């Protein structure tokens, strides 16, 4: 997929710069089902710009969420799945049994022409491995196999006076074997390997080849047509014309970019039409097949979709690339008007007597128009995979050419490696591209009939030799026997074929139901992220607060994105009333916040207690309780007093006692009103030197727990524990033990579950007495969770699946399935402890959008997985906390990433808060205590209360011109269960 801002003929030249010799991604698709042959409608010349503008108008306004949302479903029963190859790339036997030389045979034999001196002399040796290849095709479960015929293997001289019976026998054996195994052959007559004897008389620059190609095709129809019902005349004719005769990078290496490609294309189109009519006149009635040609297509986007010049440039790109061959066939028998005008205009400026683009006669136009029964194409992404471009491309074909039956003949990805049996990248590629094809079929009504993966096996990749590899099967080119090994992508593709698409897995089906009646619903913040903390590093301000390590860190140049700081943040220190009103609107039963240690104890010790800081928290807690919202208090959320850091911080053993004293002060002063304590938030992220810091954090936690348990629990009756953060980890390859072990280690250690030595003492560094002191110091399992990763090999970086939705944070992919798996794992690993989810949420970046549908999707999906864990898996989940109440200071990324239900305008001195659509949606989930089944009829919990309606209307009214926005949000709210 390219972004077009090119002007004129340059777009055509740049296109081919993407081709040879380097094209790391070759996206080639075939859609197939053998429709009843019928004449395609005669269509008028393309508009300028063409129907591409309709597609850009339809999709350019999509959000990334709408564009990338994975879609589950299946194709129609008659959808055809296949794989593709070509003769020169796999057959070998270049001079076996009377075969004549082709231009590629001779070209590859010249030293320096092909990378590493590779040739196609043996290639995959498919000439001698018909039975083995058919066995592999049958194992894949494909319905068709697209391959090409070597013209010089059948006619060594290129003419029908030199028929090679051995070559004919080879193709008969292949075709018979396919048919015997219910695999439909799709046969390409010409895939670049012209007999050298015909190149010697001028190749495709000679009109003589029209008759000679027709003679070859006629023989093939007569010989194989009783079993072959799908024919392709030319594979990627643009490559033949441009790379062979324009840029001259491919055989026959003619370097004449100004004129030769147009002359060659003119002959190719007439040759194609001649062959089509031969089939139509002589064979169609008895054989009943279809015939077409197969161009290659990149999708292209205007750099600025609202700029008419960019739209015209992008459209011109498509017409020069695709319309060059498809416009004469599928439209009016002639080249696109923009192409005729552009080339003619430039020819005139060059003082040429006529246009470099040849002219068809009226008879030729009539002869060419309609010479395709279906629309086949290969798609090439250029330098990287852009799956969503395929859906748009399919929509363009639908709009531009009257929604013909479409077949994707090649689509795949090349990987530069010696061996890639465990080819995760290829799996992700197919997973996303096939899904975009499914969207085009299901959502857009594209007449898509089949899909062919490129390629069947690793093969000779033209100028690049045997690197990169595109195959579903690995071929060992160092072994004379050329053994094939199925890659993991072959297993994956076979499963897609077996399922006829991508059905929604049973475990991902939405579950309607409610959480237990005493379930806690909460939302979280942290002190440094939302409260006005300080204004200068030189003195303590804000009523006596001391400096924290984050105060210092955020004022160090280049440490925080955009040099943001938490100096003011959301100013929650002065906005208790506003924050409590937001909490009431959310309908939460609890509110999780953290205490700023340095606000209470400016130097980190009890030598001086800042009563004004304590008073702030007392006022906040009183306001919460008055609103019937229970406080959940975190003692430490990363903001250590700077004075303690100056003497070693968590690496100094004395900090254990300092933390205990700090905790005791809070238990004494706030414990009669706080019944839920968290000692540490995400200790793994604090333990930058885990063997020392982690050691002290765990001991500090244990001392605080014992203090509360022995001194305060009886009279205060609260709960106290620790909150860990953990992604879920899946093995990248679920069949690889090394990846499985890496996933297990990731969950247990790398993401912080080593801190659950409070559940089972596992760390050998503790003394026996310390172990006894630590063991069992929990009342519940506190869990922060956001995403899932894929692991491979121990101590290797984790990766992600390309099909997973992105967020505003590079580390956070939307993976709800991992949430349920993690909860179930905790149940099984730790004897089903009571679990409180203490953080879960998703970020956004960029321009503000109050209509945050992606966040609603995130909460709907994740909370539903939590419901499954409770209802289906018996997990003892007691409460759920969303992150976060409002957009705030997100640590090293500053204010760039926004997690909040409420938007905070940080450019406004008043720091006003305004609800996003997700705030109303979360309140609805809370009000319903889950997801009532719509099948049972309207549920009272879904009825909007007057106070919420008024709040929503008030928000809309103060924003001038937001009427349409409010209406759209309202519709979204009503749609989501």
Automatic annotation (TrEMBL):
Active-site residues, Swiss-Prot/TrEMBL: 410 (nucleophile), 839 (nucleophile)
Alphabetical UniProt keywords: Glycoprotein, Glycosidase, Hydrolase
EC number from the UniProt entry: 3.2.1.21
InterPro entries referenced in this protein's UniProt entry, alphabetically: GH, GH_1_N_CS, Glyco_hydro_1, Glyco_hydro_1_AS
Keyword Transmembrane: no
Origin superkingdom: Eukaryota
Biological processes annotated in GO: carbohydrate metabolic process
Gene Ontology MF term list: hydrolase activity, hydrolyzing O-glycosyl compounds
Matching PROSITE patterns: GLYCOSYL_HYDROL_F1_1 (PS00572), GLYCOSYL_HYDROL_F1_2 (PS00653)
Keyword Hydrolase: yes
SUPFAM superfamilies with a match to the protein in the record: (Trans)glycosidases
One Pfam family hit: Glyco_hydro_1
Assembly and interaction partners: Homodimer.
Protein family (similarity comment): Belongs to the glycosyl hydrolase 1 family.
Protein name: beta-glucosidase
Organism: Athene cunicularia (Burrowing owl)
Gene name, Swiss-Prot/TrEMBL: LCT
